[in-house]
Design a protein that fits this description.
Length: about 140
Amino acid sequence: MIIVVDTNVFVGACLGIGASSAVVAACLQKRAMPLMGSTLLAEYEDVLGRKSLFTRSRLSAKESSELLDVFLAHCEWTRIYFGWRPNLRDEADNHLIELALAGGASHVVTKNVRHVGRMELRFPQLFAMTPEKFIKEHVR
């Protein structure tokens, strides 16, 4: 199953949040194939660089960086050649949909389903799901 893992899910895994950790673990165990693109990678790196977010993290900054490196080794690099904008109310989330469509993903796994799930353009093959729902329905 090909998926896009939103930044908030990867950060949740670094913070030790159960369902987010399970999504990243599923990717590392090859039970899901995560896509990665330049915009999403830049967002991951930006957020992981915010020390204030990780004051209570179970991982050190170095360990979070190492987890990102391992995660990236399991990702399929995907180039986006076509933009689908405007689509989402939050412009900052449009790249997730574009990455999913470019790479043939079936799901965008995000804690922000309220924004990502409300696409103006509908793609019947693409679903936005919380980490909890994704793990419950698709990872065994």
